[in-house]
Amino acid sequence: MKRIYNIVRRELYLWSRRPIYLIGSVGVMLASALFFLTFFGKGMPEDIPIGVVDRDRSSTSRNFVRQLDATQLGKVVLFDGITEARAQMERGKISAYVIVPEHFDEDIQAFRCPRMGVYVNTMNPVIGGALAYKDILTMVNLTNGAVQRQVLRAKGVSEGEIMARIQPLVVDAHYIGNPGTSYTYYLCNMILTGILAMSILLVVSYALASELKFGTSRQLLALSGFSVSLAVFAKLLPYTLLFTVLGTILQLVMFGPLHFPLNGSVWSMVLAMLLLVTACEAVSVFIVSMVPTLRLSVCISALYSVLGFSLAGFTLPIESLPVAVRGMSWLYPLRFYYKFYVQEAIFGTGFAGWWTSAVALMAFLLIPLVGLGRLKGAYVNQNYPRN
Amino acid sequence: MEEKISYIGGWIRDTFGIFMNELRMVVHDNGVMLIFLFAGLVYPVLYNWIYGYGVVDEMPVAVVDNSQGSYSRRYIREVDATREVAVAFDCVSMEEARRLMEEQQVHGIIYIPADFDTRLNRMEQATVSTYADMSTFLFYKNMTIASNKVMLDEVHQIQTERYAAAGYSGADAEQLIQPVQYDEFLQYNPAISFTMFFVYMAMMMILQQVMFYGSSTLAGTIREQGGSITAGFTGHGMGRIVLGRGLAYFLIFVLLGVYGTLVVPTLFHLPVHCPWWEMLTLLLFYVADIIFFSFTWSSAITKRETVLVLLLFVTPIAVFLTGFTWPESSFSPIWKVLSYVFPSTFGCRAYMTLSMSGTITSIAPEIRALAVQTVVYFVLACAAARVEDIQKRRTAPGVVSE
Predict the structure, then answer these.
(1) What is the pLDDT of residue A249?
(2) What domains does chain B contain, in order, with CATH numbers?
């Protein structure tokens, strides 16, 4: 116990001497949280620029433009010619454009079925073009509805029947775990946790390997009575606490004042965070044991953790990745945190839903055992290049 | 005149010497080589491979059909026929469907109420409820596209039937149902796949980040060992130092750039609709920019490992600032200004535009922005080198240049 206390004290002293530890954890998380929690605004983009080439310039076409402009999602930019609209779309300035043909108004009145051209830049599968496309189609269908309504009214059909004629079928869509389809809720949870995981790997690898670089590893081992597992355990204790507190604050802020949807209990999420922190530390210990030089272990931690964002499965679902890559995702604690999060925050299934992910996160704790002997050798002999 | 020539000669000699020296240092530093080779060569392939398919096909959904009529069966059949969704389970109750969704066996539920067919037969409005798993936006997108496509199609069919009952058929009915028609053109990415959207951005981002972290690590090493990037040339003009070092990276990164933006996309059949020399033109501008960008910001790095520990989190931020997902038109002013700091903001947009449109004229504004950035960062990098040089001389007055 005394030994653990001494090592923790030594670690806290190191924190006060080298700012990298606190800036690399608290500073990084503050800056990232500030950025990501404000970047997506209200969670859904508003006023996406949609181009319109109005070649009719009648009251009907102007009305169509006004209606499209009035939607929350879209903002109309008028163009004189198609060439210009196309160029602007290629440059990403507008996400879509509509061509209203000549004699649009006349043709509608005469039931000659004018054809509009809808051109969409679908580069962005999630928002941007996809949303603009939906917005335009809604407007076209509403215009159709308006025309039908006029005709049916003239025939003396009642309002209720008109609605059933125009729109005999409606889809009532529910979004489980994110009712407002907010981009903030969807991304911030996992991106910020991903950055936290990255920060854990980097800072802990740095802390463990800097003992070698600065030649202080024997001093650390002496404090632990030459038990490398005790040394690593005690050394990482303050980091576990620091990162769990950081992660918990992050969760409390998101699920509390920012009202991120949470169907389950916040304490389960805190448990997930603790498991994630320890699992990431375990990976870090493993990396440093295998490559006991500061520069290489930090490099490897960086290269490894960047891929975590793609392999956690919150962008492209794991099922649509190549089979071999699906296996690679098992190497990432973030993947299991994400599964835990889906069960608890989105579905609120509780223990029955997430216990497998929790066990998987705990299994990561066994990984360092493979390399501890090697780490001890490195700590005692300091026989690896320091730089 | 003689003096002038010897000055120019000396300048070129110095620049070349610095260039060779920097290359030698890069090659002999295995940390930097790891970043350059692994991130620069392996990541482009890896990202293309991971996002190679990029769409969710036949996402499993559960169906709860309480109506069991001809309309409801047709609706389900049509949903099943879409590319986006496959009906995997036919459930008797919502509880069962919910359990399947919680077990992640399905990612969506379609619920058809008992009065569905009755209402449609009575010429009233009927409702279908859909429940989408929001853990990934792609699930939600698939669910929405599939159910809306089928809904529009059904609306059309039902209306045709109803007008037929009222005595309108053929062209007459068509004119009434869809007085305004449209042709849709989903351009550049007709399958709405994740691949193109992400990979174009990633290729350019990798170049900038690899350059920044690699060169900062090297600069940090030199300073840590008590040296300075101006060592040996202190007192001389800083232009030759910045340019000489820059040239070394220019050589490496134009090669990495050609590899990442032309070779790898070709191998993975990613569309690049422009001739290679236009891409090369963009690369020359972009690479020059990222080099001086890295020199400027790395002047604050004094230890070799600190840059990754402290600044790796900038990568995801720079990724979002390119506007590849959240559209630029919805940026708040502060973040818009921040986005101008990174060459990647313009580089990624230019690469995407150039690959789609295939004409270099369409990326003129981005090229201009990159050029302005290059000049600004070059001046800043020289100024930073000058400051470092002066500080170095002040702290170590005994050291004089050779």
Answers:
(1) 95
(2) 2-52+193-395 (no CATH), 59-153 (3.40.1710.10)
